[in-house]
Amino acid sequence: MKLLSTNANNTKIRKSQKESGLRIASLSLYPNDLICSGAKLALCMKPCLKDSGYGIFPNVKDGRQSKTDFYLNDQEGFLKQLIKEMRNFVALCKKKGESPAFRLNTISDIDWAKHGIPQMFPEAYFYDYTKVAARLGRTPKNYDLIFSYSQNPAYQKQVNRALQTDAPLAVVFRGFVPVGSYFLGREIVDGDKSDILNQKQKGKIIGLRLKGHAAQKSKSLFIVEPSQACPAPSYAIAAE
């Protein structure tokens, strides 16, 4: 079983690859409360992207679940294979004169730094989203994170901790992203273009449009209505 996807067949990976000029290898596991520990508090498991895009196809879902089972049941074997595939990918990029990047949490939230993975590949760039605020600012220099927002009351300690940093905050909006407006005192930018460029939007809200037919009907507090955004505050207008 191959773990990494290196052909940019994920729409967001493909966009990020095109915009950044990097060649990206990604890992798609099927999320659960063990490999996405913040999902329960954030109430994001049901409207998760796991059930959109290629995730609607049973063979794709089964393949992702098999990888998750591999990680949970034989972590040593999983990491050994992952590292082997990553080394091969870095070697391929070097041969072709390309710069390697990895997104190992396409729809999961594993702290890969604890496994020493980013540290093994200082020549590569790593990026992910996370719901664990304690990870922000504590990653290796080649590993950037965006924090995922939810308005669930039980999740607000995580949100408040994230707001104390300049890490970008990803907010999922239903219908459309109110670009240029403000949320949580931060300017909203369009986050659907490139996840790598999003990493550079320090102190901003990364607005993401809710995707997936089933998710559109969800009442989850993970989803924010565009009407909750506010016009630019006076201090922001004065600074322009």
Task: Describe the 3D structure.
- The radius of gyration is 18 Å and the shape is globular.
- With 240 residues, it is α/β, with parallel strands linked by helices.
- The protein is built from 8 helices and 10 strands.
- The chain is 31% helix and 18% strand.
- The model has no long low-confidence stretch (mean pLDDT 89).
- Helix 5 links the parallel strand 3 and strand 4.
- 39% of the residues are buried.
Reading the helices and strands in chain order gives EHEHHHEHEEHEEEHEEH
The helix/strand class is: alpha/beta
Helical amount? 25-40%
Outline the biggest β-sheet.
10 strands, mixed
**Distance between the first and last residues' Cα:** 53 Å
Strand percentage lies at 15-25%
List keywords for this structure.
18% strand; 240 residues; globular; alpha/beta; 31% helix; 8 helices; ten-stranded mixed beta sheet; 10 strands; single chain
Short description:
By secondary structure, the protein is an alpha/beta fold. The chain contains 8 helices and 10 strands.
Topology:
Blueprint: E1 4-5, H1 11-20, E2 23-27, H2 39-42, H3 58-73, H4 75-96, E3 100-103, H5 117-120, E4 125-130, E5 143-148, H6 156-163, E6 169-173, E7 182-183, E8 186-190, H7 195-198, E9 205-209, E10 223-224, H8 234-239
Parallel strand pairs: 2-3, 3-4, 4-5, 5-6, 6-9, 6-10, 8-9
Antiparallel strand pairs: 1-2, 7-8
